[in-house]
Known about the structure:
Helix content: 10-25%
CATH architecture: 3-Layer(aba) Sandwich
Shape: globular
Strand content: 25-35%
Distance between the termini: 47 Å
Amino acid sequence: xxxxxxxxxxxxxxxNRFGRSSLGSGPSxxxxxxxxxxxxxxxxxxxxxxxxxxxxxxxxxxSDRARERMxxxxxxxxxxxxxxxxxMREVPRHLFVDEGLASHAYEDRALxxxxxxxxxxxxxxxxxxxxxxxxxxxxxxxxxxAGCGYQAAVLAHVLREVHTIERVHGLYEMARAxxxxxxxxxxxxxxxxxxxxxxxxSAPFDGIVVAAAGLKIPQALLDQLAxxxxxxxxxxxxxxxLVLIERTGNSTWNRQELDAVRFVPLRPGTQY
Length: 272
């Protein structure tokens, strides 16, 4: 039996296609794709830690050395998969945020990308991908919530085929433009559509990563996992946890709860 992926002391078990209870309800979570440490509120930009824009002539922390510092910090935070660390080192995160925030690109925080969305905290990106690929090499993965395209770029340095779907048309265009600027080793397909519905025409997927939190994982996404495939997603309302779901049969899925997180809400439909 495979060793659990650093599970928290919360429930785990087998799911069936008739659903399960959610991990809580309440108001929409704060706009911050971030890990929550301890029991206090998540640290995010505010009056005490302002994001001060840099002038166009300034030199942002966009060098190889800045990315190396980020990777060193990820190691200290428990990220061990060398494939993930190498990918985080390769992808220039500063190209995926507004120029005025480029100097903050390699800090361990989520940053706004417009449309009330954020680029996820580097630790969150590394953690989700590490859980997805631990002990395996998935060939085809779906990302729900392309955002600005950063996580898809990291995935493309680890996997051969990445499909990413975005419901907000402005972000879909941003992600597509950002990814086209890079020479990625893996193939990336960017789709505009309802992420909660997934991409049934391209299923099954060896892995699915969801970059927004719903009260429960949509059944459509569970159905699009290949048997043996993994889905990693935040789940919950005012209280959220990162969950790992593995498909074990035609109508069964195994579930583990991992880290406390705070993500933007998962929404249906599309937005122009």
